[in-house]
Amino acid sequence: LEAQLESVWEVRPEVLTFHFGLPKASVIEKAHSLGIAVGVTATSVEEAKQIVKQGADFVVVQGYEAGGHRGTFIADSKLPTCDLVKQVRDAIGDDVPIAAAGGIMNGADIRAVLDSGADAAWMGTAFLT
Residues 6 or more apart from 1 whose CB is under 8 A from it? Predict the structure, then answer.
């Protein structure tokens, strides 16, 4: 991972996200020192709490509807996206933004995740179909 991050540190994108696991605090600190916001995927409340504790700027809450591989690193809640967003919002409060991911295909889905407590919708598969 360290070698892969060297190009990120050189380019300095505005946002860096991690999908498979929680990066070390030193990685998040390095990103912050370069003005890069960090987001990490959570598939459970426990993971979201760890992400916030580690210092990430936002949490990508990924429900079970997500296509492809899910970014579980502690325990997968196997909850639908909207239900998981509600639980994570209750657990982490309003200070850390949430991007909801998983099964979001249209405007109605975006509205549903925003109404569940997400600050943004994270869409993937919708752009492949």
Answer: 23, 27
What's the rounded Cα separation, in Å, for the pair 105 and 12? Answer: 30
pLDDT at 129: 65
| pTM check: above 0.85 | yes
pLDDT of residue 69: 73
Would you say 111 and 121 are in contact if contact means Cβ atoms under 8 Å apart?
Answer: no
| Long-range contacts, stretch 23-32, CB < 8 angstroms, 24+ apart | 23/54, 25/54, 25/55, 27/1, 28/54, 28/55, 28/56, 29/55, 30/5
Per the structure block, which two tokens stand in for 77?
A: 């809640």
- Local mean pLDDT, 10-residue blocks, the chain (129 residues): 92 96 96 98 97 98 85 87 98 98 94 98 80
Angle, CA 68 vertex, CA 106 and CA 42 arms, to 5°:
80
Q: Taking Cα atoms as reference points, which of 110, 114, 102, 94 lies closest to residue 61?
A: 102
Residue 16, number of CB atoms within 10 A of its CB: 23
